[in-house]
Amino acid sequence: MINKNQYDETKPLDMHDLQFDIAAQRLDIEGWILEKIKYPRREFSVRFPLRLDNGDIVQLAGYRVQHNTLRGPGKGGIRYHPRVDLDEVRALAAWMTWKCAVVNIPFGGAKGGVTCDPSQMTSNELENLTRRYVFEISPLIGPEQDIPAPDVNTSPQVMSWIVDTYSVLKGYTCNSVVTGKPVCIGGSLGRLKATSMGCLYTMLEAAKVLGLDLQDKSVAVQGFGNVGYYAAELFIAAGMKLVAISNSKGGVYNPRGLDLTALKEHYDHGGRLGGFAAAEEITNTELLELDCDILVPAALENQITRDNAERIRARFVVEGANGPTSPFADDILYDKGIMVLPDILANAGGVTVSYFEWVQNLQKLFWSEDDVNRQLAKIIGQAFSEVYRIHQAEKVNMRTAAYMLALGRVAEAKQVRGIFP
Ligand code: NAD
Q1: Residues 370-380 pLDDT 10s
Q2: What pTM value is reported for the model?
Q3: Tell me, which fold does domain 42-185 have in CATH?
């Protein structure tokens, strides 16, 4: 029996461990295998100096955690954020293992990060930081070992610096060392929007099994970055109505619908969402609690907790972000009849198209964007139906169902691979 009070809701790693334990207790997996697959395989901590443009020198801490490599190379993004620490990277790496297993692609899970505040850094400083961090973790990464990708505050440009640094170290161009890079150096068409496309496909699958028409349904999105912005764009293109969107500074709301193109122009000129004429300003707290049909948290962890879950009014929560909803909140939302489409399913579109990018790089050929999206829809559709079947058969929420599927697959890999020596 799980004592939930032992887990700290403010800690992503505790939330991962609780999600794992809830699913594990429903599965018949040997204890030593559970122990093996719950914890990281390898953890790498680095410290290095960075010379700022003004001549000052600061010491930075970075991490790369390979949670699991039983089903294939480690795979997972790199995050630059002041809140990055080893425990957060451990949680994010573990979520990658389960995500890759849910969509059944041949990767394990990994994640990296540097504790820094990119909003205070110049492009030159970010480039130097990236190159030095990659140098430090270079013994651990590689196309067959561990393949980084973008995450919070890391972009296709950052991926390009990683390709260049790693290639210089190796002595030949090695673009398959990362995914999410620009198309001109081997990136995949469709990768930029892939995570958001996966959110949309997951929502469409849910609507299909529930017999729901999504036309004109209202959508609120937390996050105006890679995942949030394109989720808003794609949900609108699919016939839904964007009523609110936010970034770290707050958001804007219009129940009649927001013009995303005009909002983007306003943001590009002034650097903020607030002040947009055709909307009222709201806080992130207010956004999460809006009366809307679909809520897409696409920013950071720990947004829907036992403190605000009771006040969530959306019918669906589509997790673009990793770890936005705690298991405590999951229980409350489940009782309220709110369907949470969990991160390890709903935002798996990013890593799935990363997998396509890696396959294209290794085969030295290119797919069309239509091919990418068709294959993505197929994989998300398959994963959704497997998770939904467990959700119904076992009478568990969609998150626990997804974990049960993923843990089963990774445990099976351990069982057949056995122990070395
Ligand atoms: P990003 O850096 O492009 O954008 C992050 C957005 O979140 C920004 O608009 C930022 O202002 C906003 N934000 C930051 N703190 C916030 C807060 N406290 N409240 C509200 N908004 C806040 O990052 P991204 O790549 O879009 O990643 C967002 C989330 O999606 C993360 O949880 C990430 O792990 C997850 N994710 C990303 C990918 C990917 O392919 N980029 C794939 C899967 C999951």
Answers
A1: 999 999 999 99
A2: 0.98
A3: Rossmann fold (3.40.50)
